[in-house]
């Protein structure tokens, strides 16, 4: 069980929200000035997430060096100003090759993590490079279908639920295609284990 799935189960909050909260808390551990301002009530979670959303591990040192400036800005300005400053910091920090997946070693900021979660659920967190993001966005848009006309309001899916269903449909379609790489000599397949009790 992950921290995100545990928090979602205990609070009834949707998983995507708790996953972001846990990610924010983890990254805030390396930003003590921002953490102190948040604990004192000087800034909001919006100020903090404006920083932590872009503070991926590959940028941790850069953000630590700039934290004093960002913390002072957060204490005196709205979150959107902090977000603009962070975007500028990222632009200055990343050389052109950091956005080029063909560069030696690939994009240093790319990452993807899939963890087992509560009651068989999972936690998917990643920072795809620009080409991969586009390659993922296009089929997701194609598989994203609206709810049927006349669906009761309380049964309509949220935008994030529709995105999840589009992702699932895309994966099932992929698994049905011929010529997939094998896993230990076997075709990739989904295994379902059911408790006899």
In words, what does this structure look like?
This protein is mainly alpha-helical and 197 residues long. Helix content is 52%, strand content 6%. The chain is built from eight helices and two strands. Helix 7 (130-143) crosses helix 8. The protein starts with a helix and ends in a 22-residue tail after the last helix. The relative contact order is 0.09. The mean pLDDT is 82.
Number of DSSP helical runs: 8
Per the principal axes of the C-alpha atoms, what is the gross shape?
A: globular
Separation, N- and C-terminal Cα atoms: 22 Å
Mean pLDDT: 82
N-to-C SSE string, H for helix and E for strand: HHHHHHEEHH
Q: Write down how many β-strands occur, each being a DSSP E stretch of 2 or more residues.
A: 2
Gyration radius over CA: 20 Å
Biggest β-sheet, characterized? Answer: 2 strands, antiparallel
> Which percent range describes the beta-strand content?
5-15%
Category by helix and strand content: mainly alpha
Question: What's the helical proportion of residues?
Answer: 40-55%
Strand order, main sheet: write it out.
1-2
The multimeric state of the shown protein is single chain
Low-confidence parts: none
Set down the secondary structure blueprint.
Blueprint: H1 3-11, H2 15-28, H3 32-40, H4 45-52, H5 60-76, H6 79-93, E1 111-116, E2 122-127, H7 130-143, H8 159-175
Antiparallel strand pairs: 1-2
Which features would summarize this protein structure in a list?
mainly alpha, 8 helices, globular
Summarize the structure.
52% of the residues lie in helices and 6% in strands. It is mostly helical.
